Amino acid sequence: MNRLISLLAQAGLWLAAFISVFPFLWMITGATNTANDITGGRFLPGTNLLPNIAKFFELVDAGQVFFNSFFVAITGTALTLIVSSLAGYGFEIFASKTRDRVFAGLLLLLSVPFAAMMIPLFVMFSSAGLINSYIAMIAPGIASIFMIFYFRQNTKSFPHELRDAAKLDGLKEWQIFWFIYIPVMRSTYAAAMIILFMTNWNAYLWPLIVLQTNDMKTITLTVASLATAYTPDYGLIMIANVLATLPTILVFFLLQRRFVEGMLGGVK
Amino acid sequence: MKMTAFKGVMAVAGIQLITATMALATDITVWCWAPEFNGAAMNEAIARYTAANPDTKITVVDFAKGDLEQKLQTQLASGTTEGLPDIVLIEDYGAQKYLLSFPGAFEPLTDKIDYSQFAKYKVDLATVDGQTYSLPFDSGVTGLFYRSDLLEQAGYKADDLKDITWEQLSAIGDKVKEATGKPLLSIDINDAGAMRIMLQSAGSWYFNADGTPNIKDNPVFKAALTTWVGMLKNQNLYKSVSGWGEYTGAFNNGDVAGVFTGVWMTGGIKGNNMAGKWAVAPIPKLDGVEGAGHASNLGGSSWYVLSSAPSKDAAIDFLQKVWASDVDFYQKILVGQGAFGAYLPAREGEAYSASDDYFGGQSVWKDFSDWQAAIPGVNYGIFTNEADAAVAAQLPGLVAGGDIDAAIEAIDAQIAQQIQ
Amino acid sequence: MHTGLTRRENLTGWAFTAPALVLLGLFMIYPILWSLYMSFMTGKGMNFKFGGFANIYRLTQDPIFLHALGNTLTFLAIQVPIMIILALVFAVALNNPRLRGRAVLRTAIFLPCVTSLVVYSVLFKSMFADDGVVNDALLFLHIISEPIPWMNDPFWAKVLIILAITWRWTGYNMVFYLAALQNIDPSIYEQARIDGVPARARFFKITIPMLRHVILFTTVLSTIGTLQLFDEVNTITASQGQGGRPADATLTLSLYIYNLTFRFMPSFGYAATISWVIVILVGLLSWAQFRLAREK
Fold first, then answer.
1. What pLDDT was estimated at residue B306?
2. Which among C27, C112, C123 is the nearest to A20, CB-wise?
3. In this protein, which residues make up the domain named ABC transmembrane type-1 (chain A) (predicted)?
4. Looking at residues A161-166, what average pLDDT do you find?
């Protein structure tokens, strides 16, 4: 009986894994097919991979587009990691009544729909003369409420003895944070890095609003533009999809060893 | 234009340095969607203009259509003009919405462009209080594109598709399905485009000229809705699709035998290696509706100049020099992109009268020209998106057997609520 | 928690949190105040004037708003529990050290959340077409005899949206549970097993209570996400650039806000009012969820 349940559970898991991965397979096969094959539901590798790739590189200034995406994703991720972990550390280590109230208030901020904030945000950036800049794309996401929560929770598992010992050794607060907290919490940072890279790389609505020129476009915006032609070419769109997804998958595989480890304690 | 005249003087005077700084001042930015269509036509125009004006640099930035509208609306609403382009493409249905909700944002071109040279309905829809704001670009004159080979299998010749009603088209669909196994059309039930085509073909619209809803007591609206629902109920007539990609995919890969849509689809249809197998007929007409004809419009868009644009004068000059005077340019984009301009003198050009082997030697462009001349002008008003949403919300219920009058009541109520 | 901070420590606390708080003040508080101000304005585009509570009255008279509210709550009531339960079940199953292929399974189930919205909506649209691979597969397996009109039927469109969100976020939530599970001392289970507690009871009596906080955390986040549901219904069930199809069956509050701001004749004040409805709903539901978790 137990064996049966265990077999069923295993089968269920493999089915779930298959369903999870299937759209990726569909995308990869699609990239090798022509538009008509894809809309016709063909799920076999085709021979149109090279023409699709050629068309993509002909239509898209790939170098610029990927540079923009990487630049925005890496800078955005790095800055968010620093600012949010500083805040999470501050809220937890130096907990006070006032700060706890501020912290609770952040949750409510999280609930305001972004669509309602886009116009005032846009006004701010344009009056600062920052429209169509990397700063405008990155800045609103740097103080991520979710990440502040995440780092505060993780800080609970940061051993206080380490901090106390460091203080005895005469280290300043920022030194403790920089030389002890960050190295000790590197798995936490790795997990956050995956999530942030993903979020920044995939950002769509806000970059769309603040970008004005082709040389600032990211790959995510490019895919959207390709997908709405009068007669969309699905072969082209699929190869664009593959190229747009590859970096996030790579980042995930590079950091995944630390990922679950990093989530650990994140939510005790 | 002032700017170019000034530059001419400078060049004559040989003051190279000043000319060079002037060149910095004439950067023109254009926003549009559909790079392979609008973008390509624009780039052709740019090539022509910059050949004569090497100091002017014109850049096309393309976005998805919905994205472009969202950007434009955000930017105009924010009240800041920095970052706006000099020229923007706006779909004709949305023209009045932008002109009325953001007064002063767009530059009136009434004194700059000779509008008698453009299709009148395109001019009317961009006119507010006697001022016209657009450089009318492509027409959305409608036609019924069909696979002549498949229709022939079902026993139909070109003449059998002329002067028919929508009901007759539906009956033809039955035959086609029977003879070829393929439906005649692909239809996305969420797309209210067919309603727009039918309404305009009878000179009617969702709204009256004064902007009040024209739903409840509008016999054309009722006839169009009844006709369209009747067609939707005929499962043999169409392949049900969702979204644009599937819709175009269906006729592009030969799953269905035709499509009725705007002339801008011609380029897409010609991209399919099915030369000689396609033909175009006028769209069917609404049966028993006074004033209903075989000519209508779907989509189409026009160029607008932003009042705030730093290179406004150069932008207007560019539109005048190419878009409002270059007949040869229109031949080029007609052949290259299938972009059917609203500039009337272009119709005298060679390409417009040429026969097209892809369509079995039919003079398709001439046919479209004739139909275009017959399109009834209507005032699209400012709430077409809202009205479309209200209609689309009722369609599934109607196809499932809902009552037409009740649905009309509901559409009317929803529109009335939305436009306050 | 530390109490009795020195004055110096208190200042250090502010210093650490200051960068984030300044940025949040700039990029969130100001826009929120603007939207609060706008919610008292009526008019078209930038031609607006003070309208008092006119927008709130309009809410009560607006069948589309009520419809969107109903849809949003339907998604919330069905999707969040399904996803949370699935994520929990996967996490518990994957936590079994004797399971073969754990790393592969974990990675595969997590993978969907790395895709961008744009990519995943294109994929789902093509897979769930009437003659797409999903219907083909279901027909082939004789699970259905007619293709399911995923995107053209009001009921199936809702199902599709729920499937899509569940596909994308279950693995993400699962990782949180997996992490928390590994923090539970295995000896507790060992003891329970020795005491003859059956597997099911171990799940409900040990696992669930031990994971209470993380379940609360993910539920609150998922609730916020679903109340703001916009991406999927603006792309997957969109046609002609208008989301929420068919027949507004997948129209959500956030999408309605978007339409009122960007697609329709701009009605910024009314759109702002609806966004406050979402804020209030989130506040109420989070409060209820916190209460529930505390009582447990």
1. 96
2. C112
3. 66-255
4. 90
The verdict on residue B370 lying in a domain is no
**Subunit contact A131:B248, Cβ cutoff 8 A:** no
Pair (B304, B242) in one structural domain: no
The CATH number for B18's domain is: 3.40.190.10
Structural domain harbouring B46: 2-140+298-348
A178 vs C: CB within 8 A: no
Q: 1.10.3720.10, 1.20.120.350, 2.60.40.10, 1.20.1440.120: which CATH number matches A49-263?
A: 1.10.3720.10
| CA distance, residue C24 to nearest chain B CA (Å) | 21
Among A122, A213, A225, beta carbon nearest to B64: A225
pLDDT in tens, C169-227: 999 999 888 888 877 777 888 888 888 888 788 888 888 888 888 888 889 889 988 98
Residue-wise pLDDT for B187-207, tens only, equals 988 888 999 999 999 999 999
Q: Do C20 and A13 touch (CB under 8 A)?
A: no
Is the pLDDT at A34 greater than 90? The verdict is no
Reported as a single tens digit per residue, the pLDDT across C154-164 is 899 999 999 99
Using the Cβ of C225 and the Cβ atoms of chain B, whether some distance falls under 8 Å is answered with no
> Is B255's Cβ below 8 Å from some Cβ in A?
yes
Question: Is there a contact between B70 and A224 if contact means CB atoms under 8 Å apart?
Answer: no
SS3 string, chain B, reads: CHHHHHHHHHHHHCCHHHHHHHHHHCEEEEEECCHHHHHHHHHHHHHHHHHHCCCCEEEEEECCHHHHHHHHHHHHHHCCCCCCCCEEEEEHHHHHHHHHHCCCCECCCCCCCCHHHECHHHHHCCEECCEECEEEEECCEEEEEEEHHHHHHCCCCHHHHCCCEHHHHHHHHHHHHHHHCCCCEEECCCCCHHHHHHHHHCCCCCECCCCCECCCCCHHHHHHHHHHHHHHHCCCCEEECCCHHHHHHHHHCCCCCEEEEEHHHHHHHHCCCCCCCEEEECCCECCCCCCCCCCCECCCEEEEEECCCCCHHHHHHHHHHHHCCCHHHHHHHHHHHCCCECEHHHHHCHHHHCCEHHHCCECHHHHHHHHHHCCCCCCCCCCHHHHHHHHHHHHHHHHCCCCHHHHHHHHHHHHHHHCC
- Host domain of residue C70: 66-295
With a CB-CB cutoff of 8 Å, which residues 37-66 of chain A face chain B?
39-40, 59
Tell me, yes or no, if B55 comes closer than 8 A to chain A by beta carbon: no
